[in-house]
C-alpha cells in the first residue's frame, strides 16, 4: 500500500537525520524536508520587459544538488522500525534486538511528531501531514509495547496471534498452546482478583505477574533473535494472558466485578 507523500518525506528525513544524536537537530531536518516538499519556483523568470533571468551558477549548482539529494532520498520504511532510525538503527529482529529502549524511542517519536504536525504544514498538505502523524503514532504505540511489538513481528511472518482462536490456552494439545499448567496459573490468578477485597490483597499477585511478564520478554528476545517463529508464537500467547491479568489488577475497584479477558 502506497504511503501518503508526507509519510514518505518524514521517513526519508528521519533516516537522513540518523547521523545526528540531537533531537532538536533532527526536528529541524524533518521540518526542512516538509518545506522542500512544496513545488519549486520556475527555473527561469521572465521579467516584464521580456528578458529572461537565467539562474546563477551557484543557484544552479544548489538546485542540482537538491535534485540529487531528492533522487537518492531514503525510500519509505519497509517496517515500523524504519520510522525510528536513531533508536532502532539495526531494524527489526533478527537483525536488531527485540528489546526497545522505550525512553529513547519516545524522545525520537516526539521529535518526529513535532516535525510532522499538521499545523506546521501549508493548507494543501494538511491532510497528508495528518496521515503522516497518524502513521508515526501507530508505529510508536506498536513498538513501545512488548505484546503489540511481538504480535506485529509475528504478523510480518504470517501469524496473527491476536485474532487466531486456535492460539488460546487449553488443557489439551488440541487447544493450540496445549499448556495445562499455564491454564491453571491463569485461572488461579483470576480467582485471586475476584476474591480481593482491598488493593493490598493483589500485591503478591502483582509481583508474581510482573516477573512472568519479564520472563516472557526475555524468552521473546531469544526466540526472535533465533527467528524461531513457533517459540515466539508460544511466548506471545503467554504474554497476552499475563498482560490481561496485569490490566485486571490495575483496573480493580472495590465493589466492582473485575473485567477478566481470556
Automatic annotation (TrEMBL):
One of its GO terms (biological process) is [2Fe-2S] cluster assembly. Residues 179-250 form the Co-chaperone HscB C-terminal oligomerisation domain. Residues 1-74 are annotated as: Disordered. GO terms for molecular function: ATPase activator activity; protein-folding chaperone binding. One of its GO terms (cellular component) is mitochondrion. InterPro entries: HscB, HscB_C_sf, HscB_oligo_C, J_dom_sf. Residues 9-37, 55-73 have a biased composition (Low complexity). The keyword Lyase does not apply. Pfam families: HSCB_C. Keywords: Chaperone. Belongs to the HscB family. This is Chaperone.
